[in-house]
Specification:
- By secondary structure, this protein is of the alpha+beta class.
- The chain has one domain (10-242): Glutaredoxin, CATH 3.40.30.10.
- Helices cover 42% and strands 19% of the residues.
- The protein contains 11 helices and 11 strands.
- The strands form 3 sheets. Strands 1-2-11-10-5-6-7 form a 7-stranded mixed beta sheet.
- α7 links the parallel β6 (130-135) and β7.
- It is globular and about 50 Å long.
- The two termini are 15 Å apart.
Length: 243
């Protein structure tokens, strides 16, 4: 396996593979960029804080240490919105798996990604794959994400970020970002059911896993504004089916 480092976009790292309502004519990338443009114009303070966080994460080495292509996917079992326990073996029972880690339903970039994935769900399933998303949200906030965004795929709650930690995706939210979130009305402690005062979040990540549990593609990014395009996921699944 080889790595390709993209020096722009917060040191985006791609491994293997093909190097609010979604408009088919607009890519997910463009939607995310437009969301960021509106945010930074509305609040220079938010822009400065987020850019500092992304830079710190890029320097931390977290992406390089995380689980990546060529490794076996860690096994897990998590509760779904419907209240059932779903294991990694359940998700792999019928074929490949597309696994998306997202920050939570409070994140507008995550909502755009989830809606784009939902729109591409028929194409993903046509490739014989299962799609599932993992978030640290719990309780009513967790359930609302699937209901409000009308998602037809599995959404799982990573209680206490245990699975995210196993994948190597979790970072501590720094005090400045925590204070900013609270001023914006985002209480991750309440959303995560965590009374310890320590806030943790995953970096956005998409894994494509073959039916034997081997990770064949991993796209991880310290920049929360960057997500894998659904059409790239479909192309990677198509390549996997031919391999």
């Amino acid at each position: 396996m080889h790595r390709i480092y993209w020096p722009h976009r917060g040191r985006r790292v791609r491994f293997w593979g093909v190097s609010e309502e979604k408009d088919d004519s607009v890519s997910l990338h463009d939607q995310l960029d437009e969301q960021w443009r509106r945010t930074r114009e509305r609040s220079p303070e938010v822009r400065k804080a987020y850019e500092a966080l992304v830079a710190d994460l890029a320097r931390s080495g977290l992406i390089e240490r995380a689980v990546k292509a060529g490794e076996a996917m860690p096994e897990f079992e998590l509760p779904s919105v419907e209240g059932t326990l779903i294991s990694s073996s359940d998700l792999l029972a019928h074929g490949p798996l597309v696994l998306s880690f997202f920050r939570g339903g409070w994140c507008p970039y995550c909502r755009l990604e989830l809606k784009a994935l939902q729109q591409s769900l028929p194409e993903i399933e046509h490739q014989g794959a299962t799609l599932a998303a993992i978030t640290p949200d719990t309780g009513t906030a967790f359930a609302a994400t699937k209901r409000v965004n009308e998602l037809g795929f599995k959404v799982l709650s990573d209680i206490d970020n245990g699975v995210g930690l196993t994948f190597g995706l979790i970072f501590r939210v720094p005090p400045a970002i925590k204070e900013l979130y609270l001023r914006l009305g985002i209480d991750l402690g309440a959303r995560h059911g965590n009374a310890t005062g320590e806030w943790l979040l995953p970096v956005p990540a998409t894994y494509i896993v073959d039916r034997h549990g081997m990770i064949r593609h991993a796209e991880l990014d310290p920049d929360f504004k960057r997500r894998m395009e659904p059409n790239e996921i479909v192309r990677a699944l198509s390549a996997l089916s031919r391999s």
